[in-house]
Amino acid sequence: MANILGIGIATLDIVNHVAAWPAEDAEVRALAQDMRRGGNVTNTLVVLSQLGHRCRWAGTLADDASSATIRADLARYAIDTTDVRQIPGAHAPTSYIALSVQNGSRTIIHYRDLPEYDLDAFRRIDLHGLDWLHAEGRNVAAVAGMLKHARRQHPRLPLSVEIEKPREHIEELCGLADLLIYSRHYALHQLGAEAPAAPEAAADAFLRRQRQRAPRAIHVCSWGEHGAYGLTPDGERHHSPAFAPPRVIDTIGAGDTFNAGLIHARLAGQGLAESLCSACRLAGDKVGRRGLDGFTSQSLQEQP
Ligand code: ADP
User: Fold this and answer.
1) 45, 63, 129, 178: most buried, per Cβ within 10 A?
2) Which residues does a 6 A CB cutoff place in the pocket of ligand 1?
């Protein structure tokens, strides 16, 4: 069991289950609706907690009813929220998600007016005893300051950063972490018109570019149903295929689950090839069912 701190957001997700993604300006009826806590880093922590780790979350919440729902959900998974900053008068960030029953795809519209976690709040956190720090790549200047602070205070603490979306100056975070986890969306955006059509070639081209930016880091990119690709500082390339469940039911949080699997595997001392494989196994298990409940160490192992 490890002590893990996650920096990033928590949201309220309102999920409309639809037969298929509707055309623009269409009016469709949802087949079902559910509300759940979301947000990349808190999702990752919820999975890590189920895998037996002691998890703390550093982020912001408001003082509205939705924030109370989020807090209650985190408490259910024993996530320590001592470091959370509560901001009076703001609203919990909300994601309105259309989840397609046809193929499990999720289309998200996100609204937030809540300030992000800031560097002053982070400086007050006691980082002693931590085994891993994972941050969402957002609020770039503050997160860069947090990573530098953590590195100065605890040079041996492993630092990982998830880079999901293109944001101004986000590349600055690359040189500050030991493990960078990118989304396919970010990779394709970076490659632009030069992106090769084949996933393997595109991932390879992207990861090599990122290695030039941060030669000492491990770079990983998840690629949906094609699994995930990784590159070590020595230039070793690795790939794991995805592990498709009997039916893809819900891809919300697949990437966050993948991140949890990767961190868990690295903490267990696994090499990159093996880590990619267990992360894809865990994410494959997740997309076969609704929500983020029911993970055990069995989810990381080969099913008979
Ligand atoms: P995100 O959810 O952030 O968009 P990805 O789509 O890259 O991230 O998915 C993360 C991981 O989840 C993939 O590397 C893969 O292992 C798994 N995954 C995603 N979609 C599927 C799918 N349709 N079938 C099996 N595994 C999947």
Assistant:
1) 45
2) 183-184, 222-225, 227-228, 242, 244, 248, 251, 254-255, 258, 280, 283-284, 287
Count of residues for the chain? 304
pLDDT at 300 over 70: yes
For 303, counting Cβ atoms within 10 Å of its Cβ (0-12 exposed, 13-18 middle, 19+ buried), the class is exposed
Q: What's the mean per-residue pLDDT of the chain?
A: 95
What was the pLDDT predicted at 299?
A: 77
- Ligand 1 centroid to 183 CA: how many Å? 10
Q: Is the pLDDT of residue 208 over 60?
A: yes
Q: Please report, for the domain that includes residue 94, its CATH number.
A: 3.40.1190.20
The parent domain of residue 282 ranges over 3-300
CB 18 within 8 A of CB 31: yes
Six-digit token pair at 73? 């959900």
- Which among 170, 85, 91 has a CA at the least distance from the CA of 135? 170
Confidence of residue 297 (pLDDT cuts 50, 70, 90): confident
Tally of domains within the chain: 1
Q: How confident is the model over 59-64, as a mean pLDDT? A: 96
Q: Which two tokens stand for residue 49?
A: 């907690």
Smallest Cα–Cα separation from 132: which of 49, 21, 227?
49
Choose the residue to mutate in 95, 138, 225 for probing ligand 1, maximizing ligand atoms within 8 Å of C-beta. 225
Contact 116, 60 (CB under 8 A): yes
CA distance 230 to 220: 4
CA-based torsion, 291, 183, 239, 44: positive or negative:
negative
Express each pLDDT in 134-162 by its tens digit: 999 999 999 999 999 999 999 999 999 99
